[in-house]
Design brief:
The complex is a heterodimer of chains A (482) and B (169). Chain A has helices at residues 3-14, 23-32, 44-64, 83-89, and strands at residues 70-72, 99-107, 110-120, 123-130, 134-141, 144-145, 150-154, 159-164, 176-186, 197-207, 213-214, 220-224, 227-236, 240-248, 261-264, 273-280, 294-302, 308-316, 319-327, 346-354, 358-373, 376-387, 390-398, 409-421, 424-440, 445-455, 464-473. With 482 residues, chain A is mainly beta. In chain A, strand 7 (150-154) and strand 8 form a beta hairpin. The chains are: A mainly beta (482), B mainly alpha (169).
């Protein structure tokens, strides 16, 4: 392709915009405006005085005043949200999942009210109402800033819905504690639009975290052309369906303009994607020749209103793989996932040390035995176990890219540990390699394992978990992978 | 020109940068996609340029200097935690723009372009949307001509637009 062709294609892609004739005049007006205080030397004294007052306020304010930040609790008097607001978030008919709030703040002649909030593992949503414009917010939870893409959408007239494409992390009491900062507003469209309205408004919200349900077995590994794909997360929250996929063999730049995973209905029609992003799997400073060709992809789609069988469709590297997923109707979320105690107990002698310490003598295996996947024969041992009141799922499956399973022996394996909520194992905490020894693959199956698993992003890559000891399980019709 | 000291200098400054403004606006449109964001970015960049005009070396080429400031302002806007919120409001317009593209390959290229890292998107826009020479691209980015070529070809490879000329040729 020559320069002229490249130029032509890129210009078509970017589009042409005419140069605004009045730009120079507007710039001149702006240049003539008084400089901002921080840029004006004569204002330094004033800034210093304000800083001094601020320091005094920080030091003594808490003693003199009660907490002036608004701490919001659900407002029983708040009206039900309009359908248009709920529709923006994919929560039509599920208004009861939104925590109603009534937190109002005056900004000069404008007023803004937070009328509701919602959170699930994939999303944090705030509903605003008022005439100040679209709020610009940042959200922290107990663990710090929630770093995710966000978007502002209009719902009902006068309402603004802010959607953050990440869920808050639950606090010690199981609920999310959000600290929301509103620093400005984009004014409503019309004359004068384009300049930001300043704001300094902080309030706190305590929210229940809505649960997600598993829609496919995870982790699930398969070949996609020359790529090795691991489906790490596949679940449905009340508002979205999401997938997290590890792709070995392709860096983010190799994935192409259209990411290689879509959610399609039974007729093959793609569902509306609400967010998607891809990144490297290690911090950029740690990239090497192998991790450079590895990427992790996140994608979410608006949850379909109708229950049914859909497909996660993977297309890339010249191949297509479809994984059927069963998605129940949104309001049928509760109680649909299997409970750890649904699986029969088995004796184990596993020792966990490092970030999580436990001696597991009894557990509830959910995967046991060998089976065939798109990538060949493998052996899988996975079991639920309990530490205190918390259930976890630990899973080891032999790495088919290293060796196909061919009977008892020692195999390279992939190990993962998940925390388990009321609707299944939804949060991957640790992942790594293991040596999985199978001494018997006839009922009851038995063997041993030795693994070092690394913490994933949510708990920090410095975290380590060592697993060793013996395992037993008995294959059954309700157990994977066969 | 005595810089940034006397009232009325603003007009003189603007007269100096005026010839570059259409190019500066085009750069901002290319980087930010939105004409209104581009307007804001250029105005902010001009303010910044005016305040820092004392650092501009007399006799230097004003074009790359101003384009650098505009590019930095665009990056600052995109890095702002609020940029994605603000952009979200324009999403429907963006989608309708893309749906108005009859050629799916063009829409794909547009999406791929805006997924490039800032530095790579910048070289592509400078070279092919603003028609700068590689020398000028290098000056704007503060890198050598060879590095500008190399960065441009890497970006084109990511866009699946294989150029005929390789950087080492």
């Amino acid at each position: 392709m020559n320069d002229a062709e490249i130029r032509e294609r890129l210009r078509a892609a970017v589009g042409e915009q005419s140069y605004p004739a009045d730009l120079s005049a507007r710039a001149e007006t702006r240049l003539k405006q008084p400089p901002d205080p921080e840029q004006h030397p004569r204002a330094l004294g004033l800034v210093a005085a304000i800083l001094a007052i601020a320091i005094v306020a920080v030091l003594f304010g808490p003693r003199l005043l009660a907490n002036r930040n608004t701490v919001a609790s659900p407002s029983p008097a708040a009206a039900q949200l309009p359908d248009a607001d709920l529709a923006v978030v994919g929560l039509t008919g599920q208004g009861d999942l939104v925590t109603p709030l009534q937190i109002t703040k005056q900004f000069g002649n404008s007023q803004m009210t937070v009328i509701g909030a919602y959170a699930d593992p994939a999303r944090t949503v705030l509903f605003f109402r008022g005439n100040a414009g679209s709020p610009m917010v940042s959200i922290n939870d107990d663990y710090g800033f929630i770093n995710a893409s966000s978007s502002g959408n209009g719902g009902a007239p006068g309402d603004y819905v802010v959607i953050l494409d990440a869920g808050p992390r639950p606090g010690a009491d199981g609920t999310a504690h959000l600290k929301v900062s509103v620093t400005g507003f984009m004014p409503p469209a019309g004359p004068g639009s384009g300049s930001l309205g300043q704001a300094s408004w902080t309030f706190s919200v305590q929210l229940p975290l809505q649960q997600s349900i598993l829609i496919a077995a995870v982790p699930q590994r398969f070949l996609l052309g020359a790529w090795t794909v691991t489906l790490e997360v596949a679940d449905a929250t009340p508002s979205v369906v999401r997938a997290q996929v590890l792709i070995d063999g392709a860096g983010p730049g190799d994935l192409g303009a259209n990411y290689p995973v879509t959610l399609v209905d039974s007729a093959g029609k793609p569902l509306q994607q609400t967010s998607a992003s891809a990144g490297v799997t290690v911090p950029k400073g740690q990239l090497n020749s192998s991790s450079y060709k590895s990427s992790r992809l996140y994608a979410a789609w608006k949850r379909p209103a109708a229950a049914g069988t859909y497909q996660l469709r993977f297309e890339g590297s010249g191949a297509v793989v479809k994984i059927p997923v069963n998605i129940p109707a949104p309001n049928a979320n509760a109680g649909t996932g299997p409970s750890p105690t649904d699986f029969p107990a088995a004796d184990e002698s596993l020792t966990l040390s490092g970030s999580l310490t436990a001696n597991i003598t009894t557990a509830r295996p959910s995967s046991c035995g060998f089976g065939s996947g798109p990538n060949g024969a493998l052996f899988d041992f996975g079991t639920y176990f309990q530490v205190g009141d918390t259930w976890y799922l630990i899973d080891f499956f032999t790495d088919t890219s290293v060796k196909q399973y061919s009977g008892p022996g020692t195999y390279e394996a992939i190990g993962s540990l998940y925390s388990v909520g009321s609707n299944g194992p939804t949060n991957l905490l640790f992942k790594g390699t293991a040596q999985l020894t199978v001494t018997s693959d006839r009922r009851p199956d038995a063997g041993s394992v030795s693994a070092t698993l690394n913490g994933v992003e949510v708990i920090g890559s410095q975290s380590r978990l060592t697993v060793s000891g013996g395992w037993t399980c008995t294959p059954g019709p309700s157990l994977g992978p066969g | 020109m005595e810089r940034n000291t006397a009232a009325g200098d603003e007009r003189e400054f603007l007269q100096l940068v005026e010839p570059v403004l259409p190019l500066a606006h085009r750069l901002a449109v290319g980087l930010l996609r939105s004409p209104s964001d581009a307007d804001d970015a250029v105005q902010s960049a001009l303010l910044s340029a005016w305040r820092n005009f004392g650092r501009f070396r007399p006799g230097s080429d004003l074009k790359p200097w101003l384009l650098t400031i505009v590019a930095n302002e665009c990056r600052r806007q995109r890095r702002s935690p609020w940029w994605s919120v603000i952009k979200g409001q324009g999403e429907s317009a963006e989608r309708s723009f893309e749906s108005g593209m009859t050629d799916p390959a063009v829409a794909d290229l547009r999406r791929a372009l805006y997924r490039l890292p800032h530095d790579q998107r910048l070289v592509v826009i400078l070279r092919y949307y603003l028609d700068l020479t590689f020398d000028e691209v290098g000056q704007t980015l503060g890198i050598s001509t060879k590095a500008a070529k190399s960065r441009t070809y890497r970006a084109l490879e990511r866009l699946r637009l294989s150029p005929e000329v390789r950087p080492d040729e």
